Amino acid sequence: MELTVNNFLKKTAFTILGIILSLAFLEVFVRSFFYQNITPSLTAPGFGIPSAMRPNFKSEALNSVGVKYKIQTNNNRIRRSGPIGYKKPPNTFRILCIGDSMTFGLSISNNETYSYYLEEILNKNAEEVKFEVLNAGVTGWEPVDYFLYLKNEGIKYSPDLVIVGIDASDMVNLKSNFFEFEKLSAKKSPDVVNISLINPNIKPYFDQVTETIREGILTLPFFLQISEVSQFLNLVRKNLSIDFTQPPKPTDSLTKLVSSKAINSKDIVNWDIAIDSERLEFDQSSLSETQDILFAIIQNKIKNLAKEKNFKLAWVKMPYAPEVFGTIDPKKDKDKSPLPSSKFINLLKEFKAFSGKNPIPLYFPHDIHFTPSGNRLFAYLLLNSLIESKKIDGKYLDVNTPTIIQEIEKSNGEIEEKIKQLPVWNLILAKKYKSLHQLARATETLKLYLEQKPNSGEGLFQMGLIYYDLKQWDQALKYLSRAFKFNKFWGPEILNLQAKSYYRKGDLLNAEKLWYQAINLTPNNSKLYRNLGSLYFDNERYKQAVEQYNISLRLNPNEYKVYLVSGLAYLKLQEHEKAITMFQNVVRLQPNNAMAKGALFQLTQK
Amino acid sequence: MVFHSFAFLKFFVITYFILFVIYLISKNLKDSSTPHLINKTFLLIVSYYFYAYWDVRFLSLIILSTVISYFSGLFISKAREKKQKKRFLFIGLALNLGILGFFKYYNFFTESFNALTDSFGVSLPLLNIILPVGISFYIFQSMSYSLDIYFRTVKPANNFLDLALFISFFPQLVAGPIVRSSHFLPQLERYSPLTLKNFSDGFQIFLFGLFLKVAVADNVAPIIDPVFKDPSDYSSAVIWFALLGYSVQIFCDFCGYSEMAIGLALTIGFKIPPNFKTPFLSLNIADFWRRWHISMSSWFRDYLFIPLQLSNLGIFSRESRNTLYRATINFLIVMGLIGLWHGSSWKFVLFGLFHGIGLTINHILSTYRRTKNSHMVINVINWTITFLFVLCGWVLFRAENMSLVLEMYSKMFLWESVQNIGEFQFNSILYLFAGIMAIHFWQFKRNSENFIFKPGTIAFSFYIFSLVSLIYLFSPRNSVNFIYFQF
Fold it and tell me: Rounded CA gap, A370 and B253, in Å?
């Protein structure tokens, strides 16, 4: 008996020893091959959202240019150093900022976010009222999260104004599978599809119990402390958080409906949307704009909430870096639907103007996020626009005065120098000059950049673009052919520009060849067929021109210009009936097009 | 149902539980023949369920193949004359190959035929055939039964049940190892009760296989896949490293699956021979095929290569028996077929022929090899040449079509330093390869493929805890399918 007990104890001891040795081995293994910099996760489930900010969180890290920044949240999960109660103190104007990483302030400190600056500026100029601007943005949020946060938490603060920062990625990220509809039906006829959505509702990701459990797992204090000591356990915790915080994926009822009725993305759709017996009006649109429809539903819901809880609303479109620099990425931005801009505060023009005039880094390099200076500028511009639209009382401040420019520049602190030392800064400057049509300056700075990075595909491409604008075709071709070698990503765009240069130069043979090459790479780009068609048209090869135009129109049926030139080509070919259809299409898209109308008049007379 | 899924975990736990109940009952009985029968019947049902999980229709194929082999085996053993035996053997093989040929190769041969006869205006219709999972594996297993009976290495199965279980045994059903009837059928003769040792050993083997598959192979895939998709975007160095990565991936994927199968079979008391024996330590191509996918290569060796070498048919006259000419032709035939076994495309045939040429060259060189134990330096040279040869072979195996094959070869041998698209993780590939080599050396030293420790020792808990942790930490959350399921 004693022997077996002894034996058992021995085995247990060995087992434990083995596990301890294994832990040591794993720790060394993870430390040497999978070292992780950021230890605890900033977010945990809350308010029905899988990634709400964690309360009383503090961390320090280095951003992409090597400058330290601090993140701190208060006990109510607001990015702020001090506590904030739900109850609003008297004589206070409270502003709640909701958004994604742009609002949150990625890789900058608490006191460098636009909401912080906004509060600072407002309070400096206010006399009687005290302003509070709360930063409730979280990296990775999208409109469904904005709504859930506002509904479940935001309104508890009884804000006077809610600023919703809409980012370029919001439409793509919008999670359609969290919409529920009381009734949902579709009817398909040959011409048009009628989809009716009655009383949409947005459900939270988790119910209260699951949320508490998940939150509990992730915020165990023991876990956090251990994860700071052990890289291995931190990796375990990271995996656990991936496995436990992913929201369930219910089947998206709208997608299901669409697939069951065999509706194509190109079908014309009539939307009939009713929220509490109130009807939302939409123009006819295609199904590819479903995200817009869902976004409109969220917008409407937030609007209703504002009415009910009596706060003002400001929708702000965050200035998107590629738009500010005039370099929209061809592939990445393909699926991003344009936002219905009229209802939004859009500061793009002002941002572009300021950024052109002042060589201050407003964005981190290779990034779409603001530097502190970018945030300061944004705060000023936003304030002016809020005053203009009477959402707030205050003093209009011109950002072009030297004191404010200096203040904006100073906000960057250490970051400014770090960015300006990077070679890419010259590229950024060059793009800026180019967008302001200061081509000589742009060429100079780009040359500086290319001296440091002679094989930069983007630099070479930009140089080609500038020479193209300067109409120096040979120079443009020289840079473009090199750019093509080093930049596969922009390949078709580069080939297109090369072809255009040859075409303008009069070398039609090479232009034709390059357009075919570009078409080979991206056979779905309607622009390329159009350009090739125009080449044939000018060459009086109308039959071939018409062929190309037809392909272009099949790919993009909403280009009135292509209908127009196609109609002209048919006229030359004496195919009047086809020409008439083409001109009719022009008139359908552009009812006041004089040329098409004139041609139609003459043709029908005959 | 793949092994690394919750569905399979559920399936296996229930299966094992019921087997355990049968075991408990059998313990109290003097005569174990009834529980033995129940045990086998239950395993057959479970195996059929496992297979039907993919597609119920496939089940008919496996039953059909079993029936063919059963009767062919019966007739062969009953026949008196050699000629008659041969006839029954050929009928059995032809029917089995017919199934395989139709489901796996019909479209391939039709396409090739149509390409040839295109100018005459003759063409056969292409059919929309789904490739049944694991068909190459169980058809070969089924054929091995008739062949074994013909060569008298095994007695005919006692009953249909035994044979059916042998062909459909779920651990090795869909991706091997291809078990020989002479190895498996004797294990069905007596009831083998569940034991703790078998379970512990089998579990350790399974865990090791799971580790190779999900923690290694599945992590290599995303690194190298973009390179094979569009090699023009990468420099020569990347292509070579991607091939190195692919060696790691395919070894860990397939060896991982085999180990899982071997481990699972062992937990319920069945022994399956190893499928890999440190293949990356091979010193020549023949050596490589003795270590790589052993169950398949030895199948082709025993049932095809050796009979071809010994036959006196047609061009293979008795006089040519030991000539180089004959060996070369046989190498090319067998390796071509091995290539074709992997998939119905000329790419795979070329892969086989490539290795066939390697084997021939090795055959020629081997006549000059004097001593068995050569010097260390010579070993290193041999190893390097063999390894590079195998790497070159993977191009044919992995590249998606022939034009990409040519592109990759031209990049490999005409040095080109293009700016790569994105970062290629050279380091990860190197570390993983070094890791695999370390495991190989260890296996070589222990002279065993499996790492099995006794419960209650330090090594045991160290091994289990480390493996489980690594599997949890590094398994990708969206799993990749097994490479060998497609064959």
Answer: 45
The answer to whether B142 and B69 are in contact (CB under 8 A) is yes
CB A275 within 8 A of CB A301: yes
Q: Is the CB of residue A244 less than 8 Å away from at least one CB of chain B?
A: no
Fold of A43-174+334-414: Rossmann fold (3.40.50)
> Do the Cβ atoms of B462 and A16 come within 8 Å?
no
Strand pairing category for A58-62 and A68-72? antiparallel
Contact B458 A486 (CB under 8 A): no
A79 contacts A116 by C-beta, under 8 angstroms: no
CB contact under 8 A, A18 and B421: no
d(CA B44, CA B157): 15
A527 pLDDT above the threshold of 80: yes
Contact B105, B456 (CB under 8 A): no
H helix count then E strand count, chain B:
20, 0
Among partner residues B462, B463, B477, which is closest to A242 by beta-carbon distance?
B477
pLDDT tier for residue A341 given thresholds of 50, 70 and 90: very low
Kindly state the tokens that stand for A141.
């949020």
| Domain residue spans of chain B | 6-183, 198-486
pLDDT band at B343 (very low <50, low <70, confident <90, very high): confident
Closest-CA residue of A relative to B432 is A33
Tally DSSP H helices, then E strands, for chain A: 26, 14
Q: How far apart are CA A162 and CA A135, in angstroms?
A: 11
Look at residues A151, A159, A152 and name the one whose alpha carbon lies nearest to residue A135.
A159
Tens digits of per-residue pLDDT, A48-70? 887 888 888 888 888 888 899 99
For residue A315, what are the β-bridge partners? A164
- The answer to whether the A43-174+334-414 and A524-606 domains have the same CATH topology is no
Average pLDDT over residues B278-294: 87
- Nearest-neighbour CA in chain B from A374: distance (Å): 29
Percent with pLDDT over 70 in chain A: 87
Distance from CA of B201 to the nearest CA of A (A): 17
Asked if B173 contacts B123 with a C-beta cutoff of 8 angstroms, the reply is: no
- What are the start-end ranges of the E strands in A511-597? none
Identify which of A14, A22, A489 has the shortest CB distance to residue B466.
A22
Q: Choose the mutation target among B232, B235, B419 for the interface with A, i.e. most A CBs under 10 Å.
A: B419
With a threshold of 0.90, tell me whether the complex ipTM lies above it: no
CA distance A242 to A83: 30
Residue spans of the domains in chain A: they are 43-174+334-414, 524-606
Q: What is the pTM of this model?
A: 0.67
Asked if B183 is an active-site residue, the reply is: no
Per residue in B411-443, pLDDT tens?
A: 888 876 666 656 677 888 888 899 999 988 888
Tell me the residues of chain A between 30 and 69 that have a Cβ less than 8 Å away from chain B.
Answer: 30, 33
- Where b means 16+ CB within 10 Å and e means fewer, B77-114 reads eebeeeeebeebbebbbebbeebbeebbbebbeebeee
Spell out which residues of chain A touch residue B431, defining contact as CB-CB under 8 Å.
33
> What's the Rg (C-alpha) of chain B?
24
Active-site residue identified among B342, B355, B363, B440: B342
pLDDT at residue A133 in the model = 94
> Considering chain A, what percentage of its residues have pLDDT values greater than 90?
22
- Nearest-by-CA chain A residue for B457: A14
Fold of A524-606: 1.25.40
Q: Look up residue B99 and give its two tokens.
A: 């199934």
Q: How many CB atoms lie within 10 A of CB B215?
A: 20
Residue of A525, A569, A571, A514 whose CA lies nearest to A547? A569
Q: Under 8 Å CB-to-CB from A24, ≥6 apart: which residues?
A: none
